Amino acid sequence: DHFPDAEGIKQVSPSVSSVWAFPNPTNGKLNIQWNEKTAEKASISISDITGRVVYTSSVNMSEGNGVTAIDLSTLSNGTYMISIKSVSLNYNNKIEVLK
């Protein structure tokens, strides 16, 4: 299982795990898709522009490709920050809610 060209690859998080949140803008249904090297539990938090957390959840991310949907339809239209954190990933992005 050892690849001579892959020395130190385990320390490089972006190439180990990846995650996407879409569609953006969203009408309230947001998909979280991932590609994980190992199964992990991740926390999802969404905050408004003042930094107030308006949504939190956790997801068990299976090894390989997976997807889950979260419901943000209770949020008002606007710009929010989404943060998805696990042992091997730290994803932050802006999302727009437009209903």
Please give a handful of descriptors for the protein shown.
mainly beta, four-stranded antiparallel beta sheet, globular, about 100 residues
Taking strands numbered 1, 2, ... along the chain, how are they ordered across the largest sheet?
4-3-6-7
Q: By helix and strand content, what is the structural category?
A: mainly beta
Query: What can be said about the biggest beta sheet?
Result: 4 strands, antiparallel
Mean pLDDT: 86
Number of strands: 7
Assign a percent range to the helix content.
under 10%
Order of helices and strands: HEEEEEEE
Q: Specify the number of helices.
A: 1
The separation of the N and C termini measures 49 Å
**Strand percentage:** over 45%
What is the 3D form? globular
- List segments where confidence is low: pLDDT < 50 over at least 5 consecutive residues: 5-15
Q: If you compute it from the alpha carbons, what radius of gyration comes out, rounded to the nearest whole angstrom? A: 15 Å
Task: Describe the protein.
- The chain is mainly beta.
- Residues 5-15 have low confidence and may be disordered.
- It has 1 helix and 7 strands.
Q: Topology of this protein?
A:
Layout lengths: L12 H4 L1 E5 L6 E8 L3 E8 L5 E9 L2 E8 L6 E8 L4 E8 L2
Antiparallel strand pairs: 1-2, 2-5, 3-4, 3-6, 6-7
Concise synopsis of the structure shown:
With 99 residues, the chain is mostly beta strands. The protein has one helix spanning 13-16; strands spanning 18-22, 29-36, 40-47, 53-61, 64-71, 78-85, 90-97.
